[in-house]
Protein: Cytochrome c oxidase cbb3-type subunit 3
Amino acid sequence: MKKWLIALGVFISVVIIVLLSPSPDFKPQAETNLIVKGERIYSEYCVDCHGENGKGEGAQIGTALNNQHFLSTFSNKDIFKIINEGKEQTMMPQFGFLEEDNINALVSFIRNWQTDTLELEAPSVIEGNASNGRRLYNLYCITCHGETGSGTLTKAAAIGNPITVENMTPQQMWISTAYGREETRMGPSLKGQDGVRQLDEQEISDVITYIRQDLVQLYDPKESKHSTHAIIED
Structure:
């Protein structure tokens, strides 16, 4: 009898814990309010370029903000900085006038699109041979991104843009190259239309080193067919 009562007590305790535990999708009211506030701000200032669902399908075709690779690679601090400071030589203006609270709400709304945390690993230190990186770039990257990194296709990223490079860590650039980006020309299944999937880790580091050291010196915004785009798109 005593064992039965103990078992019953354990069962009831488990049921109570399950009933009182929030669901995986549960969000505290304060966080929900912040997301709702961010959605209003997004609808007013962002939807024209980034689209209603953040797919980059707005009238100006901006960055796909709901991209899981993007959301797994860029922290809230990174996104805040981009919104607050904008990106020179692109159509991403500064939104610092929105002030910190509103930008934080906007970041929360964008973060709410994240449905998965992708395990995207990169070397802790990226050291490469720029000369070999140039050779590989000319073999695998130049068709889409151009000789000066200005982007030759409608949605091929202007990866030579110094502002873009400055706003990304070497690891973020490495991940974009190694893993690709869903729903872009730089899709994971392709990882670069001409075969970035064929490159090993060191060769990718060589390419990133070339871009950061040398290609930025060649970049000419006048050659870019879409100064609105950053590397995170493609």
Q: What stands out?
A: The chain has two domains: 29-111, 130-223.
